[in-house]
Design goal:
Strand content: 15-25%
Number of helices: 0
Shape: globular
Largest sheet: 4 strands, antiparallel
CATH topology of the largest domain: Metal Binding Protein, Guanine Nucleotide Exchange Factor, Chain A
Helix content: under 10%
Structural class: mainly beta
Length: 94
Amino acid sequence: MTREGTFSITQGEDLVTAYDPGGGGWLKSFCSVCGGHLFSTDPETPGRYGVRLGAIDGDPGIRPAARQFAAYAAEWEPIPDDGLPRFPERAPLL
């Protein structure tokens, strides 16, 4: 579920705005222009990010390892039967 490597913003870094949900949750970073969720940052582990694949141009070079928050899937869009493990809430960090 995780991939080691580097993370950098290649364009528009000045447009990124962060939100702290409090309670130990990860910091959420958004584009201040379009509102798109770009990535999350673990406040307890600097350098650990959760990058939204929709924020990446091109093939990210990785594939999903699991389906998380499956308990909240929309009824009108079934989760694909792709053999990936499913978690009703957040998947454990692997």
